[in-house]
């Protein structure tokens, strides 16, 4: 586990709180976030950009973890928000992120979402297609305003990450091909409802190698300079997010290394830059806490069956992603056993780790899944009619539930039977 999660007197602590005390109060499974770890990650990232002499606005990518408490933690640090839906926009505004620090990305923004962004007065729409540009023009003209637009360009660079989270190759659905950008910008300049203000790019997520960034930023900065010279009034460059985190304590590029690449490639443009980090700010600040239900000895495998499932943390099932697993009680010996760590869901793919070496564990023991703060709770579902997982934030010596686990009754109350089937009977 990385800081701020460490053993003290044999018990895993989150900042100043023993995690098993939270488990006793909240029940399992639950996500646990460290506010201080988020603040530190933000300060390091923003500080690295500033240290490299860059004029940077850091817009936290809300999709990584959209809890109001999380967005508010970053807003208090001065962050803006990168949103991709009406829901995310409403969340950012609700906790006081200033509209002029909000960028709106996404390939499928609807007319309603575009209108909401215009009404709020957001900094810019990162437009991903000609079709979207034309719809935005219409929506803006209907309102008698101009929409600030950064054209999201696709630099056709392989981010060397998992195929499902790479976004900057020409075969991906994201952005406008760099070679088509000049023509689309010309159209943008001519549209009365559009004010072209910049370019944007985002090549993928969990990027652990700076070379793809270097190639992409160089390409986009070149295009920016060219178009500015051609008279397009570009004033801002959005370089997206994607900087990776250590899921297995591997050595990775630091924010300072990343900032140096930005300075080398885009610094010469001398314009304000926007960044959209998500995972890098929240990933290592979160754990998923779960209890062992059974240790099942099969013929060829030993299964550690825990009370969290793929519905709570789907990254291993979806991307075969690795999350560290540690007991909340510090192991007394160095002996290790091999386990297949699985959840209770009726799917063979409900597998967190195969043949993982862990200290000996027994039913009732508590475990933590590491680096679960990003793309964990936000991708959870209620599959197998399991209530959404609870979420808790810790700061210093105190913790608070930031999203309670709804009751089964509350979940059923949101449904109804069609009239021909009568009423939902009250559950006992
Ligand atoms: C447009 C855009 N910006 C920012 C992000 C945040 O990515 P990450 O959490 O990897 O920083 C994403 C997700 O990949 C995205 O699609
Ligand atoms: N959901 C992905 C990241 C997607 C990034 C969103 N553009 C993950 O868990 O790694």
Automatic annotation (TrEMBL):
Residues 31-373 form the Orn/DAP/Arg decarboxylase 2 C-terminal domain. CDD domains: PLPDE_III_DapDC. Pathway: Amino-acid biosynthesis; L-lysine biosynthesis via DAP pathway; L-lysine from DL-2,6-diaminopimelate: step 1/1. Its cofactor is pyridoxal 5'-phosphate. Residues 39-282 form the Orn/DAP/Arg decarboxylase 2 N-terminal domain. HAMAP family: LysA. This is Diaminopimelate decarboxylase.
């Amino acid at each position: 586990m990385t800081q701020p999660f460490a053993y003290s007197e044999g018990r895993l602590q989150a900042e100043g709180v023993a995690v098993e005390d939270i488990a006793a109060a909240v029940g399992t499974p639950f996500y646990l976030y460290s506010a201080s770890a988020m603040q530190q990650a933000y300060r390091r990232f923003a500080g690295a950009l500033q240290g490299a002499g860059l004029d940077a606005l850091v817009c936290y990518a809300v999709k990584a973890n959209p809890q109001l408490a999380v967005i508010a933690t970053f807003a208090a640090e001065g962050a803006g928000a990168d949103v991709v839906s009406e829901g995310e926009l409403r969340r950012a505004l609700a906790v006081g992120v200033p509209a002029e620090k909000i960028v709106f990305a996404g390939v499928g923004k609807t007319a309603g979402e575009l209108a909401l962004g215009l009404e709020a007065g957001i900094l810019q729409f990162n437009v991903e297609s000609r079709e979207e540009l034309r719809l935005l023009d219409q929506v803006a003209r209907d309102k008698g305003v101009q929409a600030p637009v950064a054209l999201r360009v696709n630099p056709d660079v392989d981010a060397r990450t998992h195929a499902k989270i790479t976004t900057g190759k020409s075969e991906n659905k994201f952005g406008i091909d760099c070679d088509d950008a000049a023509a689309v910008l010309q159209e943008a300049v001519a549209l009365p409802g559009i004010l072209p203000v910049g370019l944007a790019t985002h090549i993928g997520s969990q990027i652990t190698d700076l070379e793809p960034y270097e190639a992409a930023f160089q390409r986009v900065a070149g295009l920016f300079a060219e178009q500015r010279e051609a008279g397009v009034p570009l004033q801002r460059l959005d370089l997206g997010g994607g900087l990776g985190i250590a899921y297995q304590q591997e050595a990775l590029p630091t924010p300072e290394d990343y900032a140096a690449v930005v300075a080398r490639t885009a610094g010469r443009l001398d314009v304000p830059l926007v960044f959209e980090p998500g995972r890098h700010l929240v990933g290592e600040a979160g754990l998923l806490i779960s209890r062992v239900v059974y240790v099942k000895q099969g013929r060829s495998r030993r299964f550690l069956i825990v009370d969290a499932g793929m519905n709570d943390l789907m990254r291993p099932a979806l991307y075969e992603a690795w999350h560290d697993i540690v007991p909340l009680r510090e192991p007394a010996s160095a002996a290790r056993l091999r386990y297949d760590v699985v959840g209770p869901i009726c799917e063979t793919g409900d597998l967190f780790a195969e043949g993982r070496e862990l200290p000996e564990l027994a039913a009732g023991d508590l475990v933590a899944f590491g680096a679960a703060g990003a793309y964990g709770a936000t991708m959870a579902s209620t599959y197998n009619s399991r209530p959404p997982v609870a979420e808790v934030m810790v700061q210093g010596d105190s913790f608070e539930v930031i999203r309670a686990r709804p009751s089964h009754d509350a979940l059923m109350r949101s449904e109804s039977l069609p009239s021909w089937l009568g009423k939902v009977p009250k559950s006992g």
